[in-house]
Amino acid sequence: MSVVVPECCDDLKRERGRCLFNKEELTNILDGGPKLTEKRRRIEKMLINTPELFDDVSPDYLSHEDRYSNELRKATQLMTTLEKNGFTYNDAVTTGTGLWLLMDGNPLSLHISMFLDTIKGQSNPQQLQEWLPLAEKFKIIGTYAQTELGHGTFVRGLETTATYDSTTKEFVLHSPTITATKWWPGALGKTSNHAVVMAQLYLGGKCYGPHIFMVQLRDLETHRTLPGIVVGEIGPRLGMNSNDNGFLQFNHHRIPLTNMFMKHSQVTEDGKYVKPLHSKLSYGTMVQTRVGIVYHASRELSRALIIAIRYSAVRHQSEMVPGDPEPQILDYQTQQYKLLPHLASFFALRFSARALLEVFIGTSAGLGSGKMNMLPELHALSSGLKAVATNDAVKGTDICRLACGGHGYLSSSNLPRIYTAIAAGITYEGENTVLFLQVARYLIKSFRASSQGQTLPFSVSYLRVQPPSSHAPLMSDRGLVDALGAGVRWMVGEAERRLQQLVDSGHSPHAAWNACSVHLVQCADAHTRYYICEQFVDAVSKLGETVSSGVHEVLRQLCRLYILHRVIQTAGILLRCGAVDGKALTSIEEEECHLLATLRIQAVSIVDAIDIKDVFLKSTLGAWDGNVYQRIYEEAQKSPLNKSDVTQGYYQYLRPLMKANL
Ligand SMILES: CCCCCCCCCC/C=C\CCCC(=O)SCCNC(=O)CCNC(=O)[C@H](O)C(C)(C)COP(=O)(O)OP(=O)(O)OC[C@H]1O[C@@H](n2cnc3c(N)ncnc32)[C@H](O)[C@@H]1OP(=O)(O)O
Ligand SMILES: Cc1cc2nc3c(=O)[nH]c(=O)nc-3n(C[C@H](O)[C@H](O)[C@H](O)COP(=O)(O)OP(=O)(O)OC[C@H]3O[C@@H](n4cnc5c(N)ncnc54)[C@H](O)[C@@H]3O)c2cc1C
Question: Which CATH number is 284-459+475-610 given?
Fold first, then answer.
């Protein structure tokens, strides 16, 4: 059956006809300016004109091995296409285009992110000169090998050892137990010939804690594993199965002294240790990746939202008024309630990701001149935002799937794949509960410092013991954000009180911490969300002077929805601390419902402005033209089971069963 694709179906035409703002302007804001939109589109055009980058057959129908090879084919093609056209891998990462193409984890993602970032951030000048050109030109291919079978979160508990032998000026890398096996690193199994390896540094019998080493794993000609090294792939996962997540063991494997990354700490030839300016500088690559993940999570959420919102405008179901035609499901208030707060979250995360990037850039510049004072602030912000962004992207993506009913469960909707890929983000790069507990540590320290009269860094300055009272009317955006801040201050104060009470009653500080950790995680989550609200309000108010009134109104409504939704989610706390009363909450609930109806009118245009082309959405439900049913039908025809009318399985199993005398 041939597909006659209309320019765009009537439902979507009508939706788009109601647009009251300049879509291109909103696109530019999301990209970070017109020049960046233009650059992204140039990259997209180039990629779209490279057919080798696209799948002939859905990876769902490939074997485990073919899936990997197919993704490797596309990943290498992507790198050469970018290079030939004067772009870098970084352009593909920062515009999102590369990650959308390589849809399910890919064998070069760790190379272009954590491997290269470690070389750039942890090398001394000689190492940088030696390794960076090789890695940038893909002469060596690497990954970030930190996690072990026995330890992922607790980096200090890693078991792999790097023992210095001053007689040969080498480190001896060893995996003393099964639990010391490196486990999980992306692209470690079959792709990488190098890895940056986190191992416990031993000098003269003394352990100096985890340090990073550049280790060659495979021969550069034959790609065979080097002696003293065992490496392989860990097998199928929930998602991201196009990647070759791997395992790695060392058997007294020797590497030169100069292969320890020596920007921050050094070992001299005679085995003396030179301390870094801050003990956690070697965790820098993780921090940088967390910053990137906030963007990544917001992008993945936006893909799910485009799919679900367009589909909700095309799908008609049930009767709202008996006897009337079936309405678009987007007209149901419950459907709006499922989707639109997540649309607001996407915008909130995008603005917060940008603010975090600025903190990262500022802190990195400071580190260059020996200033370490911003490091705890960056660690807390990047940990909290990574956790909230991935939690919300996962939850939002699953809601989008559910909002598409049965068809959301189809692989061809692409929602399952977006979900499984982003679901890994809750665990990797610091498990979210663990990261929240790091934020909580910062909050409690800050709260206590404030009680002793110290000035607090900007992200926690609202926690000071005697904050100035809010002058903004409660129901204004600022007033509600101040109320949320008061709620967090109350929660942190309460956590501190409970901790102190437990210590006073004889518990050790560590036992008290564990006994309060559920509440502490809630504090960290609430603090991070308060920060996100602040960033959203600030960004919209700053843009107010420069953008057209239509775009400003849409952003103002999305920001308002985000804040109202947050206040409702936190109602219990806000009532307990007296920041709002029942009457205010009732009017906030009513306003939220009203706002859902207002935003619904332009919802399709808003997701259009996110500007992700069909080839990157890869969804039968979310394509620009809304031709949903034809696409679903055509995709089903590609199932290998439809190649013949009667399958082999019938002759092998079903027929014998039917003929058996049971
Ligand atoms: C370019 C962008 C690309 C974007 C691409 C996105 C696409 C994604 C594709 C990639 C796919 C997958 C990648 C996944 C890769 C990985 O998962 S790599 C492995 C990551 N592993 C982790 O994240 C481990 C998590 N654990 C930790 O970070 C630490 O162990 C933990 C912080 C939990 C505790 O560390 P300890 O060493 O045990 O800490 P303590 O000794 O207890 O000390 C705590 C104090 O140290 C401070 N601290 C901790 N970390 C940092 C840091 N990074 N910076 C600054 N300070 C830090 C902490 O605040 C405590 O300070 P205090 O004592 O309170 O003053
Ligand atoms: C798809 C994927 C890709 C990955 N890629 C890489 C990679 O490229 N390189 C690499 O080195 N690693 C990689 N990892 C590993 C990843 O970084 C770890 O899985 C992650 O850091 C969590 O560690 P864990 O698995 O040891 O979990 P655990 O730490 O064992 O966590 C299990 C549970 O214990 C809880 N828990 C642990 N510690 C605490 C605590 N202190 N307080 C309270 N609760 C706690 C956690 O909250 C969680 O609920 C990857 C993982 C995945 C899933």
Answer: 1.20.140.10
